Amino acid sequence: MEIVAFDQEWITLIKSAKKLGISLEEVQQFLNSASKKI
Q: CB atoms < 10 A from the CB of 11, how many?
């Protein structure tokens, strides 16, 4: 049996985005573009 731990902040982020109508793909695109600027 594999145990997977999730970061509560990430779960909150995804839930908040979903409530705002932002897709998972849009969140991924934003995070990818933000990481390229660093």
A: 10
